[in-house]
Prior knowledge:
The protein has helices at about 5-10, 15-25, 55-60, 65-115, 120-155, 160-185, and strands at about 30-35, 50. By secondary structure, it is mainly α.
Amino acid sequence: MLDKISPSQRAGVDGHSAAAKVKDYLVDKDASHVIPYSKGGSSHSHNIKWESKATNRARGNQLMTRQEQMRLGTKVHFDNFTGALQTGLGAVPKGAVIGIVTTVPFSTLRNTLRGARGEISPHIASESNSRNIQRECNWHGSLCYNCLCSHHSCSRFSACCYSTNSNLSCFVSCRWRGNGLRVVQDC
């Protein structure tokens, strides 16, 4: 039955947050039978949809109409979209932290060396550090947001996102090396 919950509503950064999201999503839901069990319907997943408790219990043992099934299908897509946005927004601070961690050491060292050699003033070095950190925080934050939103809103692209994530870690590693080389070249 978990496959009936939209991917973004099952997503989390770890097992605990994923379980908490599923629990929050299901707090007011019932597993509703399209064809009621009392009228020969099975408990197989193709005959069950997640629906609000009030609506399911008000219907009783009546057949679920085609309109109700379409409404629930639309609701699942909407829930998936809103869940993906929430997951993406939750990733922005983590991306910003990645930007800070990958930028601060190299930017500070590079600008300190340039200041010590008299190429730039301490004030300009500080401004340069701030611009670099802000740019990298924005870049990593938006990257994390876009990756997670696209991954959780459209499960068909999950294989693409997994390969993107491995390429991303390789790219971040190369950026680290590139920043380190820039500092070494400045010496």
